[in-house]
Fold this sequence. Notes:
mainly alpha; 43% helix; single chain; 2 strands
Amino acid sequence: RFHPPGEGKLGKGEVRMDSGVREGDEISMFYDPMIAKLITHGKDRNTALDVHGEALDRFHIEGIQDNIPFIAAVMDEKRFRSGNITTAYIKDEFPDGFDGVPPTKTQETQLICTAAYVHGFLSRRAA
């Protein structure tokens, strides 16, 4: 059964996404490269950056190539986090472009454990 929203004051969230596109829209080569804006809040810059990084880890765009891994890497980069940046930041910090971030030891361990589990599961299932 439908219940309309109740009355009251909205709380302040930590994450918001603004976008002018929706499922099925065409992204042409003439489109503004910023198809969505992820806005995060925190008690200070580092907290907001942490929230932003966590939100990016859960953010997924289907159908087109995106730059989410690059933006997530920037959120963790020491100079960016310090706020000591200029318009030359990307050129200075990524002079050869961005090829991704290698997995952490924890991520490697998680991947290995997952692969071992799936292998064992499929082996038992085939037997």
